[in-house]
Each structure stands twice: as structure tokens, then as C-alpha cells.
Amino acid sequence: MMSKILHIDASVRAAINPNPKHSSISKNIANRLINSWKKQVPIDEYIYRDVGMNPPPFITQDWIEAVFTPENKRTQAQHDVLSISDQLIAEVSSSDILVISSPMYNYGMPAQLKAWFDQIIRINKTFDFDLARGDFPLQPLLSGKILIIITSSGEFGFEKDGIRQNMSHLVPHICTLSKYLGVEKIYEISSEYQEFGDERHIKSLENAFQKAEKLVAQLSSLYTKS
């Protein structure tokens, strides 16, 4: 079984900053997971994108027009406007493990991460459309992928039955969109209480680091047995 990982970081902060309080929590948890993976399982291919600091462009009217123009009739300008989308889709397609780390901004995902999803979820590339399917005409074209979602938030209680369950639009949104990336299994790691900066935050962060390492051990056993 191949180990091909696509690692997407969405925080606008660097993993390490002169002021440690400004270092990205989600990126550091993701780094712990990736470093642990490298120690336990050979990685056949590793692709990294920091969309927080190097975001893909937003889709535009020209982008949409190019997408819905048959490929053999596209102008060179239309091929050019889709070139980044083509590259990002190829990276998802070639990977079997997706690691997405993201902070919660205003109870949802950063605009930069949404821009990445918008470039990838594309008709006849990652999904097709057929009205013969009735009320559910969209069907994913990719399959068999694992997604690890790593999140950080300033507040807490966003989990199922938590006191802020209905306020979280980060993980639910990623989970909904992940269907069109071919994801069939999702694992979640979260760190909370950042804005409180108390013992609860320290414990939550440490639990997230430990969960990252335990998850790697769990998944690596599947790869080493193959």
C-alpha cells in the first residue's frame, strides 16, 4: 500500500514566530503528525502547500466560463486560467492521504482554504453531473482517500453535543466538501481554548499532539501490514 500524502496548511501564521504566542497551533500539530509519520512509515510521495501564506487565486467569471467550455474548444487564455486548478486537482488525485490543518476564523474556514477547495471541486474533474440521478445529480469521481483534519480554535465546545456545536462551520464544511476529493474515511484532531490561555488550553494542545502521534501509529500499522 502506497503512502502518498498531500499536506495542506491554511493558517495565515507561520509555524514558528519570534513571539511564540503568535505561532500557528494548527501547523505545529500537523508538523508533529508528519514528522511522526516519517519516522514510522516510508513516504512514497509528500506534497506540501501552505495556502494560508500562498493562497490560490479566487475563481472568477472567466474561470467559470473556461470550466464550462469543452476542453478542445478552450482558448489559450482559458487553458491558462485553469492551469492552477489542473495542478491542484492532480495533487489531490495522486495522493491517498490528505492532511488539512486549519484554524477556525469567525467560526468557519479561512478564505484561503475555501479558495483551494473552489479550485479543486470542478465538474468533469472531481465530480460529474447527471440529472438522471434525480435530486442528487452530483457524483464524485475520486475515491479511496483518507482525510486527517487538524483544527485549532479560540473557544471550545464545538464537538457533537458541545455547548457551541451549532456554531462550528469549519469541520462540518470540510467534511461536506471532502466527498468531492474522494475521501472515504475522516479523522479529526482539535485544539481548543486558545483565547483563554489557561490550563485547559495547555491540556487540549497536549492532547492534540498525543492524538496526532497515536493516529500515526494506528494508520502506520495498516501500511506496514500491506
TrEMBL record:
Sorted UniProt keywords: Flavoprotein, FMN, NAD, Oxidoreductase
InterPro entries: Flavodoxin_fold, Flavoprotein-like_sf, FMN-dep_NADH:Q_OxRdtase_AzoR1, NADH:quinone_OxRdtase_FMN_depd
SUPFAM superfamilies: Flavoproteins
Cofactor note: Binds 1 FMN per subunit.
EC number(s) recorded for this UniProt protein: 1.6.5.-, 1.7.1.17
Sequence positions that bind FMN: 11, 24-26
Cofactor requirements of the protein: FMN
Occurrences of domain Flavodoxin-like fold (ranges): 4-214
Catalytic activity from the UniProt record: 2 a quinone + NADH + H(+) = 2 a 1,4-benzosemiquinone + NAD(+); N,N-dimethyl-1,4-phenylenediamine + anthranilate + 2 NAD(+) = 2-(4-dimethylaminophenyl)diazenylbenzoate + 2 NADH + 2 H(+)
Pfam families (alphabetical): Flavodoxin_2
Molecular function, one GO term: FMN binding
Subunit structure: Homodimer.
Described purpose of this protein according to its UniProt entry: Quinone reductase that provides resistance to thiol-specific stress caused by electrophilic quinones. Also exhibits azoreductase activity. Catalyzes the reductive cleavage of the azo bond in aromatic azo compounds to the corresponding amines.
Family to which this protein belongs: Belongs to the azoreductase type 1 family.
HAMAP family: Azoreductase_type1 (MF_01216)
Protein name: FMN dependent NADH:quinone oxidoreductase
Gene name of this polypeptide: azoR
